[in-house]
Amino acid sequence: MELKGSCHCEKVSFKLLSHTPSPCMMCYCSICRKCQGGGGYAMNIMGQHDTLEILTGKEYLKGYQAMKDKEKKELGGNIRYFCTECGSHLYAYDKQWDEFVYPFASAIDTPLPKVEPATEVYHIMLNSKANWVAAPKPGTKGAHIFEEYPDCSLEQWHKQHNKFIE
Predict the structure, then answer these.
(1) Which segments of the chain have a pLDDT < 50?
(2) Architecture of domain 2-160
(3) Which residues form a coiled coil (predicted)?
(4) Which residue, 1, 21, 36, 78, could crosslink 42 as a Cys pair with Cβ 3.0–4.6 Å?
């Protein structure tokens, strides 16, 4: 599926192909919370890195690599790209998984496939969730809750839920 995205001021626009376009995992880690915005979590989807094309505004793109461990000064793997004009976060890329790019669902302008929030959305990295963020509690019927990483990849999730697009 071709996805098109942009920042809020529309100076940066991009497109890419994705086999896994459903926004299905809410990440509550401190990096996603702080780098994505005020919702207490981020929703990333996955696309094919070799198809990522910056259509407009390449000069407005900047990457930021967060500290995974501030005390040890250890960098995280992802480089998060954002618009320097309006600050919108657009996508993340990690050389360790170089075939993929992870656009933020909020930056995608193309209508995305819907998911059932109560039973299909995975809540991940809850061990670092801010105390003010509402999230399902352990034992919530049908909820998929993970203190750290989930029990499947984005690709596996899409295949299990018949949402993988060839």
Answers:
(1) none
(2) Beta Complex (2.170)
(3) none
(4) 36
